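Sequence and fold:
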Amino acid sequence: MATTMSTATLQSARPPIGDLLREWRERRRLSQLALALDAEVSTRHLSFLETGRARPSREMVLRLAERLAVPLRERNTMLLAAGFAPAYPARNLDDPALGVARAAIDRVLAGHEPFPALTIDRYWMLVAANRVVPALLTGVASNLLHPPINVLRLSLHPDGLAPQISNLPQWRAHLLARLAHQVDVTADPRLAELLAELCGYPSAEDPRSANARQSDAGPGAVAVPLRLQTEHGLLSFLSTTMVFGTPVDVTLSELAIEAFFPADTATADLLRRVAPDAAKRSGWGEAR
């Protein structure tokens, strides 16, 4: 029989707000004095909030969370821990309220053709991709392509794209460094588990060595490229990440568009030739 939990029970299952404030402050490597000055509160009051001797107002929780650059999902957690309702909705992407944003994502993905682009969520799960992406996934094990698709697992798994990436050590180090930074920023245990999984793949490197490996991108390099050996030939890409600038919805704040640009004229010319046919065969479409 289904059961429900009271608000009081949900609150008691979370760390006290004081503990959360201290954890986020320490995660951001700030002293109480530095945070107090930035948030325009007294150090004494901040100390009382962290030790539980004072209870923060809703406005104070939001102010401190903003100064600490706490992600929206975790801001809601802080509000609940302090006894307040969440401030940021977490809608499904097909919610009419996100219709304009969803349409913008679809336009960006389609407009990037004949080059690959995809949208991911916080956990690197594939949300949408343009019609060029499937053409680059030949040879990938079918179980890695069964939804929900994790893009990092797809990229680095021995049965995924890893054998086809000619500069795998550099590209792997780049991805692991990004994920390690994300774990540090969000303190999300699910992301930490994903990082541990990826580091456990054969030859996977400790993300702490990522900077050294990324510096080995080649003479004259300005960024770490993705060099992918495909049935059409060797393709070389530079990637860029786009996010919504001022989201107030949790779902929207966690979406990112990964767009891949040709790093050389050979890649650009090849994709312009093969992309139209690939798009016709593709069953992939708009954001879902």
In short: Residues 1-11 have pLDDT under 50 and may be disordered.
